[in-house]
Amino acid sequence: QIKLSQIGIFLNILLIIGILFYYIPAIEDTANVAPDYKGAYGIYTPLISLLGLVLANRFIKKDEKLVNSSERLR
């Protein structure tokens, strides 16, 4: 689970970089006006996904620590 969430974090960071450096300038170049991102809430979903993956990774590690401590008690 930890490796899967780390792969997800890496891919999500690549997606965010791609949006920032390729997709947004491409839109601005093709449209002769400055685009309005006020209603484009979908552009923020990779950030929300990244936050969820980081929190998931943190709690998976916390859970593994708890399991390892309970195994020591046996």
Q: What is the chain-wise order of helices and strands? A: HH
State the helical fraction: over 70%
**Mean pLDDT, rounded to whole units?**
82
What's the Cα radius of gyration? 19 Å
Give me the secondary-structure category. Answer: mainly alpha
Overall morphology = rod-shaped
Distance between the termini: 25 Å
Query: How many strands in all?
Result: 0
Account of the 3D structure:
By secondary structure, the protein is an all-alpha fold. Helix content is 78%, strand content 0%. It has 2 helices and no strands. Helix 1 packs antiparallel against helix 2. The longest helix is centred in the first third of the chain and has 29 residues. The chain is rod-shaped. The mean pLDDT is 82.
